[in-house]
Design goal:
With 335 residues, the protein is of the alpha/beta class. The protein has two domains: 22-141, 2-Layer Sandwich (Chitobiase, domain 2), CATH 3.30.379; 149-334, Glycosidases (TIM Barrel, Alpha-Beta Barrel), CATH 3.20.20.80. The protein has nine helices and eleven strands. The chain has helices at residues 44-57, 96-99, 110-121, 161-173, 198-201, 213-224, 244-247, 271-287, 313-321; strands at residues 22-24, 30-39, 66-75, 90-95, 102-107, 136-141, 149-153, 178-184, 229-236, 291-295, 332-334. A six-stranded mixed β-sheet has the order 1-6-4-5-3-2. Strands 7-8-9-10-11 form a five-stranded parallel β-sheet. The longest helix is centred in the C-terminal third of the chain and has 17 residues, at 271-287. The chain starts with 21 loop residues before the first strand and ends with a strand.
């Protein structure tokens, strides 16, 4: 791995993305040994990250420069908790005058340490363009925004789990931390429901394909292992065609269609509201994250469309907010 002298040179500068908050680099020809060892907390999630990143860090070409044979990782907390407020800050330091064989990483959590490994993996440039001056570098970084998201719209067309995982890998390389899974829209509901299996039983053709609950658990594990939260979204009370299969069985009532698509009815027996609460709670427990997104896309702001009720954004939000107490892990419902 070669490090560059300045941020400006085109063929000798690490192409950081995103650019760390503080970067100080020195002229050098620094190599990471193919037999590099890691001194790190014994945490499976961090160990998995080290295994993934090692092939991206080591240098197989010969060099007359300094050779790092140890990467020492220190974290303030080795907790696996992964929330939107999780500390992802880190610093990286190397100085041959102190110890020419060790790169030191200090991070608030194991997730900050993962970001440090990603940053080091981006520091590969052309060793032939560099001199053998004493290498020293330091990097300090923390995300500018807590919520760094990519949305996958599976509420319109199915996206295979393998493709989702490829996108998760790309997100990790860009230090993004939220996979916004928009899985229910006008067209379809994309996740198996144990309570309402009819939501997915009729998906065929262009609308075919859905994730089993085991698929979702697999997706969440894969994402969490890379420091990414999967945030679910069920679009409501508009864009509500995903629940049409429940209308046929009397489990969902709809308002008259005034030309913008029927919305959920605030029926006297609260059939629609109870169904929405049951679906929301089932999905919230499956994802077990601290944010659950309810969309509220293209909804009415008052009762002037049909006077029907749950088609109105504010009214449906207030009703669903009461669901929070049913699942303490769901601290927020976001729209």
């Amino acid at each position: 791995m070669a490090l560059a002298s300045s941020i400006g040179a085109s063929n000798t500068t690490p192409k950081f993305w995103p650019l760390p908050a503080e970067v100080k680099l020195g002229l050098n020809d620094l190599q990471i040994s193919p037999t590099v060892t890691f001194e790190a907390p014994d945490v499976a999630r961090l160990s998995n990250a080290i295994e993934r990143y090692t092939p991206l860090l080591i240098t197989t070409s010969s060099s007359n420069g300094y050779v790092v044979d140890t990467i020492k990782i220190t974290v303030t907390s080795d907790s696996l908790d992964l929330l939107f407020s999780t500390d992802s800050s880190y610093s990286i330091h190397y100085d041959s005058a102190q110890n020419e064989t060790v790169i030191a990483i200090d991070a608030g959590t194991i997730y900050g340490a993962m970001y440090a490994l990603e940053t080091i993996s981006q520091m590969r440039v052309d060793p032939a363009a560099l001199s053998n001056a004493s290498p020293a570098f330091s990097i300090a970084d923390k995300p500018k925004y807590n919520h760094r998201a990519f949305m996958a719209d599976t509420g319109r067309r199915f996206i295979p789990l393998s493709t989702i995982k490829t996108n998760i890998d790309a997100m990790a390389a860009n230090k993004m931390n939220v996979l916004h899974l928009h899985f229910a829209d006008w067209c379809r509901f994309a996740i198996e429901s144990k309570l309402f299996p009819e939501l997915t039983s009729g998906l065929v053709g262009d609308q075919g394909g859905f994730y089993t609950q085991d698929d979702i658990k697999n997706m969440i594990t894969y994402a969490n292992d890379r420091g990414i939260v999967v945030m679910p979204e069920v679009d409501m009370p508009s864009h509500s065609g995903w629940a049409f299969p429940l209308n046929a069985t009397g489990k969902m009532e709809y308002c008259p269609d005034t030309g913008v698509g029927p919305g959920f009815m605030n029926d006297a027996d609260q059939v629609s509201l109870n169904t929405l609460k049951a679906v929301t709670l089932e999905m919230a427990e499956l994802f077990n994250t601290d944010l659950f997104h309810i969309g509220a896309d293209e909804t009415a702001g008052n009762d002037k469309v049909t006077g029907c009720g749950l088609e109105v954004s504010e009214r449906s939000e207030r009703a669903l907010m009461k669901t929070r107490s049913m699942n303490p892990r769901n601290d927020h419902i976001l729209n």
